[in-house]
Amino acid sequence: MLAQVGLHVGGLVAVAAGLLFWQLPGEHLRLMWASAAESTQVGTSVAFSGVLHLGIAALVWGLVYGAGALVKRGLARDVSNPRRFKPTQGAVFVETLVVFPVFLLLTFGLLQLSIVNLTAALMQVAGYQGARAAWVWQPEADAGRSGVDQAEVNERARIAVALVMAPVVAGDIQMVGREISPQAEAMARAMYVRFALDVSAGGLASLLFPVGGNDPTTELSAARAFDSDGFDRRAVRKFLFSYMMTEMGEGLASSDGIGVIHDGNSTGVRFKFHHYLAMPLVGGLFGEPKLFVGMGGRRGYYRTWEHEYVFPRQPHGVNRHTP
Length: 323
Hints:
The structure is a single chain. This protein has helices at 2-23, 26-38, 40-80, 89-143, 150-165, 182-194, 205-208, 222-225, 231-245, 283-286; strands at 246-247, 259-262, 266-276, 288-292, 298-312. By secondary structure, it is α+β, with helices and mostly antiparallel strands. Strands 1, 2, 3, 4 and 5 form a five-stranded antiparallel beta sheet that branches. α4 (89-143) runs antiparallel to α5 and α5 (150-165) crosses α9.
């Protein structure tokens, strides 16, 4: 009895850890923990996502354990009666043909659900980090210091959001036709320098266009959606794709629009993030088919998230003199 309990607990922990570290690097886990410690709103959302993550891991473990038990039982039956004619073998084969697609659907569905769940948690962290960027830079735009205008504040908030959301972006989306701001390009080139990569002409463009060209009207396969490059190039590419998928606007947000929120009481952000659903067979369960013209015309299943996070406005008046 205790051995069975230990087996299931160990399997659950292993699956939960595997799903978590498969999607989020250590730095993002530390950022999520720090943001949750500083914000009750983020902490509550992350805790809820953590409980849901354990539930998803339990379902995955149950699926794996059940499949393993069935295979083990079938092998034991064949070994015990190696020469005995089994009239039910044809029925077993037919049952396998019926059950296997369901097994694949459940497997891909649970994996995609795990990604969607962690995306929801990252949206809270991204909102917190984007609002922090707006809270820091908005007074500079209000004072007109250092050449900072409202578009610059929005851009810095957008980059902060994109950096947080990068892990859940497919590594080989190859979107084209979307402009990259000078600030985002500077961030990408800084990442290149950090990883000691070549930043010569064409370095960034080579990340956005695959070898042999790109057909933006076709849907990506699951194999191409997974990361297949080194960590350094993959990190820069995922940031650029995350930036393309983030909408922040260029000015202050209206009552129901996106952008930087800045009024008499609060400063923060309201943004959208278009999450590409890479798992096959189950995209329609979690999103809807779209053809994003503004994102290079990439066809596929997307789930659009919208989130808002605000801080109390800075209590001190604007210093209009450059420090």
